Description:
- This protein is of the alpha/beta class and about 220 residues long.
- Helix content is about 30%, strand content about 15%.
- It is built from six helices and seven strands.
- The protein has helices at about 5-10, 35-40, 60-80, 80-95, 110-125, 135-145, and strands at about 25, 100, 130-135, 150-155, 175, 185, 210-215.
- A seven-stranded parallel sheet has the order 1-2-3-4-5-7-6, with no helix packed on it.
- Helix 1 (about 5-10) packs across helix 4, helix 3 crosses helix 4 (about 80-95) and helix 4 (about 80-95) crosses helix 5.
- The termini are far apart.
Amino acid sequence: MFKYMYQALEFIGGLSEPSKMPCKGWSIPAVECKVGSMLRKIAGSVCFKCYALKGMYVFPNVRAALERRFGVLQRALSNAADRAAFRAAFERLLRKETYFRWHDAGDLQSVAHLLLLADIANDNPHVQFWLPTRERKIVLEFMRANTVPANLTIRVSAAMIDGKPLDMGGLPTSTVHKKGTAHGTECGAYTRDGFCGPCRLCWNRDVANVSYPVH
Length: 215
């Protein structure tokens, strides 16, 4: 369907390149987060000082790109033709990729959204996908009738800083902690000037919980 990469990129609204990540990603506006929008109003929550609502994310060109991608997603979730094109675009763009991150900004909108990402994982078994999310209910509803692809690591985050990992029936989780209070495996990016470097813990579903130092 997409002979050239630029055609696929144009269709999905472009990819994001998070500075600390070892891979590309795809994001939507943080203002569209469902659980996150509520947590942003709660002091001590992991979303209270949302990084995706400041810094480079407020630049007009970045905001426009995020809005464009959100529109693309809405169309893909509303009709079969756009859904098929969305999957085909990612299949073209991910041919040479090994790792990928969903939502360096934004979050799941619905079970249908998660089903779409699961389909893309199944379409691209050579790629290891990481999906961090606050949308526990969406994930649990998805799991009632669907199997998470082996190459899709969904990490459901605890809502509060220093909160305990959620019980997700075996799915990996994540937490945010203050100094000295990490649950499980601590993210070591802070020892590498904020970069993942060679670490791929977040993409590894066998790592039960990754705990990120608050910043």
